[in-house]
Write a structure and sequence with these properties.
Helix content: 25-40%
Strand content: 15-25%
Number of helices: 13
CATH superfamily of the largest domain: Type I PLP-dependent aspartate aminotransferase-like (Major domain)
Structural class: alpha/beta
Radius of gyration: 22 Å
Largest sheet: 7 strands, mixed
Oligomer: single chain
Distance between the termini: 22 Å
Number of strands: 16
Strand order of the largest sheet: 4-12-11-8-7-5-6
CATH class of the largest domain: Alpha Beta
């Protein structure tokens, strides 16, 4: 890593010009390789690679037990999990969602022929604003998808009250929130169901995968049919379905990752705490706070750049990228501004002032088990430079 001196005062350290390898926002956590490979050997010995094998069944049971939920249905990825949940609940017409989320939340709706109706967010939490969500309800509305952005629980009670008042289905996109809690209850127990992503870049991964959790027995039974083409038994197709199955090797990765989850969260928290100590409140940069009562997984380190900061958010991101630090502008520019949506939702931006303001000031910084304390310090020094 090359360095140069920067104008940071008398105690300034050398500022790097470039890391030799890219520093990503999140790289996969692997867990105990030997434990994983032992599980792979078991899979190969059984020659049962897919179709609800023993490893997937064990993984589902482990997830359900950890979350304290009646049913955990493992799926091939989080997007397919969303699509299956939406279809299993017979949602039609319009569904209210935030625009400040990963695009898959809206894609799943449009892919199934439904219309996402974007509602604004709370500028402090970055989660769906209940008042904005209720104001977006029309006679065509059949559901609400709340998103636990950054792993911070969405306003669960308020959204449930709105759903009950208007007779709407409530789903939570919990892609960021595995292991988090709300009032001592694990995320995964709320709404009619919740959807998790276990993508490789998540702090807990199954290579690629996801899960739908629910305490509704009938809904779980329908979801399981849909995951496997609608088959009930060998030859009896009783439901329209798809191929949403998780394969055995992915479940093996998940079981291995569960064993090291406390250590991963501890590393995430260490990095988060260091960023806060070195950055928070300095030069117009604020680190988004987590409520420790929600049992955060600290998967994301989210910095907000004040408009009065000496360098703009985009300039800071460009400077970090020049150092090979691949910080991200999540979730910029908001789904409603993306090419696939902007024409159909041209007028939506007028109703989403907080979404657009937050999207213009957020930087997500690298963390995870591959990010060292030294790397965090280097990134912080770069962010605190003045031109």
């Amino acid at each position: 890593m090359q360095t140069r001196n920067g104008p940071l005062g008398p105690n300034a350290a050398a500022i790097p010009t470039r890391f030799s390898e890219p520093v990503h926002v999140g790289r996969p956590n692997i867990g105990d390789r030997r434990a994983f490979l032992r599980r792979v050997e078991e899979i190969l010995d059984r020659r049962w690679l897919s179709n609800n094998g023993p490893m997937v069944q064990e993984f589902e049971q482990s997830i359900a037990k950890r979350l304290g939920v009646r049913h955990a249905c493992a799926v091939c990825n989080g997007t397919v999990a969303l699509e299956i949940a939406i279809r299993a609940m017979n949602l039609q017409g319009e569904v209210i969602v935030p625009s400040y989320t990963f695009v898959a939340t809206a894609h799943a709706l449009r892919w199934l022929g439904l219309t996402p109706v974007f509602a604004d967010i709370d500028p402090i939490t970055h989660n769906l604003d209940p008042e904005a969500a209720e104001n977006a309800i029309t006679p065509r509305t059949t559901g609400i998808i709340g998103v636990h952005v950054w792993g911070r629980p969405a306003p669960i009670d308020a959204l449930q009250a709105i759903a009950d008042r208007h007779g709407l289905a409530l789903i939570f996109d919990a892609a960021h929130a595995f292991g988090c809690t709300f009032r001592d209850t694990s995320i995964g127990n709320f709404g009619r169901c919740e959807v998790f992503s276990f993508h490789a870049t998540k702090f807990f991964n199954t290579f690629e995968g996801g899960a739908i959790t629910t305490n509704d027995d009938a809904l779980a039974a329908r979801i399981r049919l849909m995951i496997n083409f609608g088959f009930s038994g060998y030859d009896n197709v009783i439901e329209e379905g798809t191929n949403g199955k998780m394969i055995e090797v992915c479940a093996a990765m998940g079981l291995t990752g569960l064993e090291s989850l406390p250590e991963v969260v501890a590393v995430n928290r260490r990095n988060y705490d260091q960023y806060r100590v070195e950055l928070d409140g300095r030069s117009g940069i604020r680190i988004l706070e987590y409520d420790p009562l929600t049992n955060p997984n600290y998967q994301y380190v989210v910095a907000e750049v004040d408009p009065n900061c000496p360098r703009s958010r985009d300039e800071l991101v460009a400077d970090l990228h020049s150092m090979n630090v691949l910080a991200r502008r999540y979730f910029w520019p908001g789904i409603h501004r993306m090419l696939a949506y902007r024409e159909a939702f041209a007028a939506t931006g007028a109703y989403l002032p907080q979404t657009e303001a937050v999207a213009d000031r957020v930087i997500v910084l690298p963390t995870g088990s591959t990010v060292t304390s030294s790397t965090v310090s280097t990134i912080c020094q770069a962010l605190l430079q003045t031109r």
